[in-house]
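S2.1 Query sequence (NAD(P)-dependent dehydrogenase, short-chain alcohol dehydrogenase family)
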Amino acid sequence: MAINATFHDLKGKSVFITGGGSGIGAFLTEGFLAQGAKVAFVQRSDSTAFCDEMEAKHGNRPLFIQCDITDIPALKAAIQQASEAHGPVTALINNAANDKRHSTEEVTEEFWDWSQAINLKAYFFACQEVMPGMKAAGSGTIVNFTSISYMMGNAGYPAYTTANSGINGMTRSLAREFGPDKIRVNALAPGWVLTDKQKELWVTPEALEDHLGRQCLKDTLGPEDIVGATLFLASDASKMMTGQAMVVDGGVVVTG
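Output structure tokens follow.
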């Protein structure tokens, strides 16, 4: 993965990424490692081999903590472990999500609670957990991953789009609440990023052609295309930017 910009203030920064061992998250982990950051990440599946690869490639090994982010005490304990290893987390990247397809008719209360737990609840409690350390450090930055799905009014996963919209509301409120302590909170909304999971489960030639027809830029989005925007939001390059939603989607939706 080529990194086109260097954000000098990210060197040595304590970064915590949810879902940092696969999909977009793995590219985010590598992107921060390449900047010299101290990265800790949580992932449900074993990511030891990925950490070995990153250490060999960058000489900078991420701290992998196996964790299901819907287990809030475990998530908070992981953030504490990362802080003990790397110093207080001053860049939180809430990336982990699950966009499992579903119709309204088939949603049970259990499924609804699970979807909100992974796509929204964990984000809030991760923000809550890092706040004291960021406050003590004098500043911090939080990037909450959302999606353009709710902006498009997409059908096929209403519980997921509900959480996406909630992430933006939460981001704005926390930006206002945390701002006096120089903690910035922004949302990042990718378009249809063709991760291995997306290709395996949902990408068809017809669906991809239709989506590209909506983009201004006619190239497909890969996980690597999301890294630069995340680094920017985590760095001092965006030091007066908070409470905002940045879209990286090739020009499908319009904001402002």
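The longest strand covers residues 183-190. The chain has a mean pLDDT of 95.
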